[in-house]
């Protein structure tokens, strides 16, 4: 087919659970492509010689290459191409903001003047990864001969998984240390089951184990063991710190200490990692909010809002101080939240949280806003409308206004340089920190970012480690 014929092929829609059904279960919302749908969508790729889509991919997947194989129906070859540079295609195909990365640069989207009509790279990536997993265990990755060098990886999120895999492939003896009882980092405690089934994350952890990576859970580096002790006493030749951005931010408003106020981190961790929603089998209690306000406009706010519905809320309000156009959340997540019944309150913000005489939330006083001039990020700044206060009738408030870097390791490691935001400072070429042999990457360096960006950081740090140990 020539370009004109390919442009005439309609975008392949994603199958989904009906909104009225999925809002009350924890099953995955998007049901994935069939083999024929994946082939049709992949065939829309124009195979541009310059490969502009790859500019938006932090790990430089050969996108035209894997799409060409998928279009032929050779899904085994397609996933092998993806896995040359991405360890987590089933994850990235589900949760990465492709519309702001690879698909943003897709020529098809530019020709049709709509990024939503770009080739659905993430959906095809998801299909070929699922195809391989459902067939059974894929071929084990090739490993270099053992080097006799030991590498410690702290944390088990996307950056750590990628770094651990690349170091193990290089022949190093790798041990991963995870503070929680289950490995996976933000993939298991932050992203809900209905967006990313945990069996998929577990499959990736299992692939790490097949590479020879040892995983120690319930091990808090900085408490169970100091970072420098791993090197000085336990014989690790290099350490990677990938502990993420798990320190929740609050707004500093009146009433944030009332019963019924939660950080989105705690709320989602209870439901995702600890499966509080499964009351018949889980021991973790959760707050049975009936009228819930979620403060924020990012993906975490969408996750918390949609989770609240699934935990039995009768009404969920999403309160955001800018307009929908300025929301950082993915368009797909916003669309799904609206379909499921989340009520959006744009250009409004919490002023104070109200409580009853027993210290429980019984209302949220909000203020209306209008948009002023753009701020440093390019988004228009919200300006409060004087005298526009009003009260939402709620019994629960979930604060989802961002996270700061995990402070434990910087605060317990002498000589580890951080910046004003608490992020670990690294050499931009190697990701080595101010301590020789200690590397870092992911959200602990970038601040809260995406899965694929964290993976890119983990890959760069692994290159730095491998060069250092050589």
SSE inventory with pairings:
Elements: H1 3-7, E1 15-16, H2 19-22, E2 30-32, H3 35-42, H4 63-72, H5 75-83, H6 89-95, H7 107-111, H8 121-135, E3 150-154, H9 158-169, E4 173-177, H10 186-189, H11 198-210, E5 214-216, H12 227-232, E6 238-241, E7 247-248, E8 261-263, H13 264-272, E9 291-295, H14 299-310, E10 315-320, H15 331-340, E11 343-346, E12 348-355, E13 361-374, E14 380-384, E15 390-392, E16 396-399, E17 403-404, H16 408-412, E18 438-440, H17 443-446, H18 451-469
Parallel strand pairs: 3-4, 3-6, 4-5, 6-18, 8-16, 9-10, 9-16, 10-11
Antiparallel strand pairs: 1-2, 7-17, 12-13, 13-14, 13-15
Please give a structural write-up.
By secondary structure, the chain is of the alpha/beta class. The protein has three domains: 3-135, Alpha-helical ferredoxin (Fumarate Reductase Iron-sulfur Protein, Chain B, domain 2, Orthogonal Bundle); 150-246 and 405-469, FAD/NAD(P)-binding domain (3-Layer(bba) Sandwich); 248-402, FAD/NAD(P)-binding domain, CATH 3.50.50.60. The protein contains 18 helices and 18 strands. Helix 14 (299-310) links the parallel strand 9 and strand 10 (315-320). The longest helix is centred in the last third of the chain and has 19 residues, at 451-469. The chain starts with a helix and ends with a helix.
């Amino acid at each position: 087919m020539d370009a004109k014929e390919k442009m005439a092929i309609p975008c392949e829609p994603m199958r989904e659970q009906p909104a009225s059904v999925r809002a009350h279960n924890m099953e995955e919302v998007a049901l994935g492509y069939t083999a024929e749908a994946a082939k049709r969508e992949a065939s829309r790729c124009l195979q541009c010689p310059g490969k502009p889509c790859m500019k938006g991919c932090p790990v430089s997947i050969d996108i035209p290459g894997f799409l060409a194989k998928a279009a032929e129906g050779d899904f085994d070859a397609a996933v092998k191409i993806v896995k040359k540079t991405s360890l987590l295609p089933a994850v990235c195909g589900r949760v990465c903001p492709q519309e702001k990365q690879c698909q943003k640069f897709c020529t098809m989207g530019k020709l049709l003047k709509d990024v939503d009509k770009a080739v659905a790279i993430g959906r095809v990536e998801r299909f070929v990864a699922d195809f391989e997993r459902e067939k059974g265990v894929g071929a084990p990755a090739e490993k270099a001969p053992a080097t006799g060098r030991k590498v410690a990886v702290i944390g088990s999120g996307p950056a750590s998984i990628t770094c651990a895999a690349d170091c193990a492939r290089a022949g190093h003896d790798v041990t991963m240390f995870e503070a929680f009882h289950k490995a996976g980092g933000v993939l298991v405690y932050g992203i809900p089951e209905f967006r990313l089934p945990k069996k998929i994350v577990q499959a990736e952890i299992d692939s790490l184990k097949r590479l020879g990576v040892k995983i120690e859970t319930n091990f808090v580096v900085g408490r169970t063991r100091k970072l420098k002790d791993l090197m000085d006493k336990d014989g690790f030749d290099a350490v990677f710190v990938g502990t993420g951005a798990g320190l929740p931010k609050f707004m500093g408003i009146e009433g944030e200490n009332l019963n019924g106020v939660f950080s989105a981190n705690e709320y989602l961790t209870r439901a995702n990692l600890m499966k509080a929603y499964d009351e018949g089998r889980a021991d973790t209690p959760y707050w049975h909010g009936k009228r819930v306000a979620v403060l924020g406009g990012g993906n975490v706010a969408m996750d918390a809002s949609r989770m609240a519905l699934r935990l039995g809320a009768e009404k969920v309000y999403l309160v955001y101080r800018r307009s929908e156009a300025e929301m950082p959340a993915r368009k797909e997540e916003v669309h799904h939240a609206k379909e499921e019944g989340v009520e959006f309150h744009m250009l409004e913000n919490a002023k104070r949280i109200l409580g009853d005489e027993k210290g429980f939330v019984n209302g949220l006083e909000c203020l209306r806003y209008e948009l002023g001039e753009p701020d440093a990020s390019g988004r228009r700044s919200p300006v409060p409308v004087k005298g526009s206060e009003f009260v939402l009738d709620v019994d629960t408030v979930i604060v989802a206004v961002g996270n700061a870097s995990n402070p434990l390791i910087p605060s317990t490691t002498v000589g580890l340089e951080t910046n004003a935001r608490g992020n670990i400072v690294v050499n931009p070429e190697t990701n080595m920190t101010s301590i020789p042999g200690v590397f870092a990457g992911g959200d602990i360096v970038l601040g809260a970012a995406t899965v694929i960006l964290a993976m890119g950081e983990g890959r760069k740090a692994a290159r730095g480690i491998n060069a250092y140990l050589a």
